[in-house]
C-alpha cells in the first residue's frame, strides 16, 4: 500500500511538473524595427531617411493653435523648433486624444511635419486648409500659425470666424 501511494504521488508530481516544463519559445528581446509576432516574418516599415527629411523641412520653427467654439483651450496645439541639430516639440490634439511633450511629441509630429510641406509662396487660404486637413481638424473659430521659414522669413497666419 505504501509503495502504491508513493508511486501514485510520484506519477502525479511528474505529470504536474511536465505541464510546467521549459517552453521552446524564444524569450529574447525583439530587435527594434522587427515584428513582435513571431508568426510575422517581416520588419515593421520605418520611413526612410526621417532625420534627413526633418533636416530638409522648409521651416525651422512652427507654432500652431486651432481653437473651436466648443473648446476655449486649443483643440490642436503643435510646436516644433529645430535649432543646432536639436528639436523641441509639444503636441496636443483633442481629435486624436493626444497630449505630449518632448521626444514622444516629436515622434508623433515627424510624419505630420513631413507631410505638411508648407512654403512661403502658398496663399493664407492654402496654408490654413492644408494645416487643417493634415492635423485632422474639421473647423475652427480661431486659427493661429507662426512659421519661421528656413530662409529666415517669419510669417504669421491668423484668422478668426
Distance N to C terminus:
93 Å
- Which bin fits the share of residues in helices? 25-40%
Tell me about the biggest sheet? Answer: 6 strands, antiparallel
Strand order of the largest sheet: 4-3-2-1-5-6
Rg, please?
27 Å
Shape: globular
Question: What's the helix-strand series?
Answer: HHEEEEHHEE
Let me know the number of strands. 6
Strand content of the residues, in percent? 25-35%
Uncertain runs: 30-47
Global mean pLDDT:
76
Quaternary state reads single chain
How many helical elements? 4
What structural class is derived from the secondary structure elements? alpha+beta
Pfam family, one: YusW
Protein name: YusW-like protein
InterPro entries: YusW
Describe the structure.
The chain has a six-stranded antiparallel beta sheet. The relative contact order is 0.14. The protein has helices at residues 2-19, 50-55, 102-116, 124-134, and strands at residues 59-68, 71-83, 86-93, 98-101, 142-149, 154-160. It has 161 residues and is α+β, with helices and mostly antiparallel strands. A hairpin with a 2-residue loop joins strand 2 and strand 3 (86-93). The protein has a domain at 50-151. Helices cover 31% and strands 31% of the residues. Residues 30-47 have low confidence and may be disordered. This is YusW-like protein. It comes from Psychrobacillus faecigallinarum.
